[in-house]
Amino acid sequence: MFSRPILRRKQTLAAAIRRLSLSSPDSSPHLPSSLSRYGFRPPPSLSPRDHGSGAADASGSERRKGKPRYRPPSSLDREGQNPLHSDLPFDFRYSYTESNPDVKPIGLREPKYSPFGPGRVDRIWTGTCAPAVDPTVRTLDGGDGGGEEGDGKKQARRRSREEILGEPLTPAERKILVDKCQRNRNKRQVNLGRDGLTHNMLNDIHNNWKHAEAVRIKCLGVPTVDMNNVCAQIEDKSGGRIIHRQGGTIILYRGRYYNPKKRPVIPLMLWRPHEPIYPKLIKTTIDGLTVEETKEMRKRGLAVPALTKLSKNGYYANLVSMVRDAFLTDDLVRIDCQGLERSDYKKIGVKLRDLVPCILVTFQKEQIVIWRGPNHGGAAGTPGYS
Fold this sequence. Notes:
The protein is an alpha/beta fold. The chain has three domains: 4-66, no CATH class; 80-134 and 147-278, YhbY-like (Translation Initiation Factor IF3), CATH 3.30.110.60; 291-376, Translation Initiation Factor IF3 (2-Layer Sandwich). It is built from ten helices and eight strands. β7 and β8 form a beta hairpin. The longest helix has 20 residues, at 4-23. It is elongated and about 130 Å long.
């Protein structure tokens, strides 16, 4: 038997617990009386109102309805949007270094579908480019085709570019920018590969100029055969200035007064257009030679020692000077291109033909065989030499 003080304390404690359970707003009548009596608060997951399908389903349906509908970037439905307009004064091409506007194709591999998407750009796609001037217009009032007004627009463009670039950089400023763009300090880089300076790369360059005054460009592959053309096209199309060049690495400066909010409008190409059809590079007979002499030259060219072996996605800036030096002693030069894509070593052959210059003999067996031509002079008895 308990003593009276102990019983009195127990009765007082029980009365206090009863008053607490009755005054608690979180007590649930659906729970056992023992849990309610001692003030047990159930977690939200065990609450009876959470087991219903009312509020939870309603909130879930609201969240699902509030999610925006997925729209792919290449959606063909413009929904009444106006075509994009760009004030860039040059023709839009897929590649500005690997395409020559002076060479006219003899046909197209596909219909004239714009790589920008239907109705997205207010320029007509001709199959090779999107010209800045509508090709269907016959007369132009103040066009860019030439004359004083055309020259005036070119001068205005040059003045605008010089205003953005500002004063030339001092040697100290140039060194600071070059050091900031080194690989050990900055991982940002724009890669220029076999396609050369593409149209969408211009947008990548301006995106990098948002965060830094200069951007590093790494050049590899076919375009490096003619690095002077690559540098000229990068400066002309982007509006920047090259402040450092070492091998295939270029540092491109945006200018002192460049404003990212006033960057030019550059519509993006959604897919790569097919290359048009050009005349054959290798003719059945070389000009000035007979069929037998051409066959003999091709056979002899494949047997001469290789001048060099090109690696895939390598740096080929010294190739033109190597071929010119080889032509001082030999009339035929063979370049080993095993492992390269056929389209790649064909482009290399075209660049050598224009830069050396020379005559293409054959592309058989993944080799480039070139002839220095009859105007160089050579050993007596060589076919085609005077």
